[in-house]
């Protein structure tokens, strides 16, 4: 079964890894948010893309979900000795990814081409696809002013109330040919349990993306990142609340109304099933928490079976 997953962040990366394990080699394409990309020390950094890439390659740090397992931080320590503010943790091996990506960009390669090079070098059997090749940047409006996303998310530890989220440059972005082709050929499209506002949100806001999804014949299934009213990781619940959305599986379903035919929610939220069905979605209630690699594969297989059923 040819599957396209939309993902960003640790939760999305986990399910993408489960799908990769559950599917025949080469059957998975992952479209990843790149609106949290930024530059630091002259290097172009793609946090969501790299989190997904390292997870699919089996080298992600299992304790944090981001970065590389067993990485060291000698370069960062030296930068600190030089007086630099080392608020964004970059490991030594992780740094190699950013050095090479930046060099390839300066040679005129596109983000799609560079992602394919890096994923191939790490032995990832499927396709890792940036949502677009244009530069898009998430900016967050807070009571303290407008912040670049990594300033809000990492440097300030997500402590600010989010009043609005905008994606600078999104108007000029377009789905790449690789993304359009993957969606058109897909037999199932999965919206992973990523933050619906700042991970899945920017993917869907790329002009032409919703149209490409609507044109795809494959059923679309979303997995809720909210369990029992709380985000399993990150600020999705607080962000949804401050932006006027209910922080619940039902609230996530409302954001995806008209886009997906199926919704996967945790058993904890089983009492929301009827409301979600009222939005015109089929609902799968299961254990949606991925505690380890076995859980990732189990949930992925359940999502695949659910999607198969929606195909009729």
From TrEMBL:
The keyword Transferase applies. GO terms for molecular function: LPPG:FO 2-phospho-L-lactate transferase activity; magnesium ion binding. Keywords: Magnesium, Transferase. This is LPPG--FO 2-phospho-L-lactate transferase. InterPro entries: CofD, CofD-like_dom_sf, FbiA/CofD. Pfam families: CofD.
């Amino acid at each position: 079964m040819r599957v396209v997953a939309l993902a960003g962040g640790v939760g999305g990366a986990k399910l993408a890894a489960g799908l990769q394990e559950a599917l025949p080699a080469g059957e998975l394409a992952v479209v990843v948010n790149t609106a949290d990309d930024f530059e630091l020390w002259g290097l172009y950094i793609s946090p969501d893309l790299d989190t997904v890439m390292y997870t699919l390659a089996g080298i992600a740090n299992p304790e944090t979900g981001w970065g590389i397992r067993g990485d060291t931080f000698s370069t960062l320590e030296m930068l600190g000795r030089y007086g630099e503010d080392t608020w964004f943790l970059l490991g030594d091996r992780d740094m190699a990814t950013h050095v090479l990506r930046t060099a390839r960009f300066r040679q005129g390669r596109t983000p799609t081409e560079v992602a394919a090079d890096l994923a191939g070098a790490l032995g990832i059997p499927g396709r890792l696809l940036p949502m677009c090749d244009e530069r898009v940047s998430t900016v967050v409006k807070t009571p303290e002013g407008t912040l670049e996303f990594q300033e809000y998310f990492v440097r300030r530890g997500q402590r600010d109330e989010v009043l609005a989220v905008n994606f600078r440059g999104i108007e000029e972005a377009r789905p790449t040919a690789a993304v359009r082709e993957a969606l058109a050929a897909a037999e199932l499209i999965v919206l992973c349990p990523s933050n619906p506002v700042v991970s899945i949100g920017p993917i869907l806001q790329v002009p032409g993306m919703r149209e490409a999804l609507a044109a795809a014949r494959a059923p679309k299934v979303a997995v809720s990142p909210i369990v029992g009213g709380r985000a399993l990781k990150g600020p999705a619940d607080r962000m949804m609340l401050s932006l006027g959305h209910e922080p619940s599986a039902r609230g996530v379903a409302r954001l995806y109304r008209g886009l997906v035919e199926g919704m996967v929610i945790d058993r904890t939220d089983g009492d929301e099933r009827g409301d979600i069905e009222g939005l015109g979605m089929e609902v799968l209630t299961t254990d949606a928490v991925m505690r380890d690699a076995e859980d990732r594969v189990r949930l992925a297989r359940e999502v695949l079976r659910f999607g198969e059923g929606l195909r009729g």
